[in-house]
Amino acid sequence: MSVYVGNLSYEVTQEALTNVFSEYGEVKRVQIPTDRETGRVRGFAFVEMNTSEEETAAIEALDGAEWMGRDLKVNKAKPKEERGGGGRSGYGGGRNRY
């Protein structure tokens, strides 16, 4: 399980997030998604910690806390939902035959 961290500054780094969360336990992984086109941080991240107890401690301490000028939104991450495969379903693809 991992922790969702929202309302992040666009200046956030993996190192900074690791430092903040390591106060509550061992950080296994930090993932900061970026925009495909601009490469800019999207304003949220996922932090995976060693135990669920450490995750709970971090959530309780950091949810609503101000960090880098923003009030953090921190909670258990929800499982990624499967998206439909490949968009534009129902359209024949290719060029117009008419």
TrEMBL record:
Keywords: RNA-binding. This is RNA-binding protein. Transmembrane segments: none annotated. The keyword Coiled coil does not apply. Residues 74-85 have a biased composition (Basic and acidic residues). The keyword RNA-binding applies. Residues 86-98 have a biased composition (Gly residues). Residues 1-79 form the RRM domain. It holds the Pfam family RRM_1. InterPro entries: Nucleotide-bd_a/b_plait_sf, RBD_domain_sf, RRM2_NsCP33-like, RRM_dom, SLIRP/GR-RBP-like. Signal peptide: none annotated. Residues 74-98 are annotated as: Disordered. Coiled coil: none annotated. One of its GO terms (molecular function) is RNA binding. PANTHER family: HETEROGENEOUS NUCLEAR RIBONUCLEOPROTEIN 87F-RELATED. The lineage of its organism: Bacteria, Bacillati, Cyanobacteriota, Cyanophyceae, Nostocales.
